[in-house]
Amino acid sequence: MFYDELTISLKAGKGGDGCVGFRREKYIPFGGPDGGNGGVGGSVYIECDENYSDLRNYHFNPRWAADNGENGRGSDQHGKGGDDIYLKFPSGTLFKNPETGTLIAELTEHGQKILLLKGGKGGKGNATFKSSTNQAPREFSLGTEGQEGVFDVEVKTIADAGLIGFPNAGKSTLIGILTNAHPKTAPYPFTTKQPSVGLLDDTANFRRLRIGDIPGLIEGASENRGLGHKFLRHIERCKVLVLLVDIASIDQRDPWEDHQQLLKEMSLYSDKLLEKRRIVVLNKTDMLEDDKPIKRFNKKLGYEAHCINCVDDTGIPELIDLLFIEVAKADADRAAEAEETKSK
């Protein structure tokens, strides 16, 4: 199972109470107040860790709380602060208000830490209230409650490039060739039932990419048919979209209609998906008798789609170079947009 949605309950620790105490020692008749302060409550931090891929750690344990601070004690002993807790989540994790849907926090980069809930303050002991006019105070204060809340947590896969296509188009086979991912492959549709991300590591040129295999879409996915929205939202974070089309029509589908339907489902879900850089890849060219289907497709497309064959890796090295080029362009586009926004 791939757990990418859940509701989680979190609570920061309560601050410890202050203490009322007086020094009682032989030969010290005027010992005075010595009640210590309470310790602060532990806070709740969320941390982005690329070693996590989904929310399974929290699916079976959706309630987490930081430690309370200790109460103050006599002899001017302050209570120990409660330990903070650091909860690790995969990159692309969103925290939302379950009632309003408002975004509260977002984890996008490995090592990123966010203080989500702050621990309560420790109470003051009576030694704090001592003054020249109040030399034997019996005042103290209680520790405050730590912050708490319920959050809708959602993971949107972050990948440099996302493989998109209809069932049985060959996405799982392709990501298995390109990266270190090992998704299930079989000669029937809907083999992949959850997104997977693999690392394309080009050590010779000191470069790497994260590639996501988005499970096969179907007609009506934008209306949440099948697992439509569950899959489509993972496309939102990809910098470049790779539209994989079965040019051999193994399932008696029309390749051009498949291409158009993919664009339609993406646009119906969000117009912003069509603004992303796209690479059209024609797969299973080894099963064609001639190149006429490719020519017909390219004529309608208006330019030449990239052709590959996963059996003998035909076109794979060129596709790798193309992926790095397009992702670099997407990064440059984002940098330019950010600079333009900053200048305004």
Q: What fraction strand?
A: 15-25%
Overall pLDDT, averaged? 84
Stretches with pLDDT under 50, minimum 5 residues: 184-193, 220-229
The number of helical runs is: 6
Textual characterization of the structure:
- With 344 residues, the chain is α/β, with parallel strands linked by helices.
- 20% of the residues lie in helices and 22% in strands.
- It contains six helices and 14 strands.
- The strands form three sheets. The chain has a six-stranded mixed sheet, with helices on both faces. Strands 3-1-8-5-6 form a five-stranded mixed sheet, with no helix packed on it. A three-stranded mixed sheet has the order 4-2-7, with no helix packed on it.
- β12, α4 and β13 form a beta-alpha-beta unit.
- About 6% of the residues have low confidence.
What are the main properties of this structure?
single chain; 344 residues; alpha/beta; 14 strands
Tell me the layout of helices and strands.
Elements: E1 5-11, E2 44-48, H1 56-59, E3 63-65, E4 85-89, E5 93-96, E6 103-107, E7 113-117, E8 148-155, E9 161-164, H2 171-178, E10 196-202, E11 207-213, H3 228-232, E12 240-246, H4 255-269, E13 277-283, H5 292-301, E14 306-307, H6 316-343
Parallel strand pairs: 1-3, 2-4, 9-11, 9-12, 12-13, 13-14
Antiparallel strand pairs: 1-8, 2-7, 5-6, 5-8, 10-11
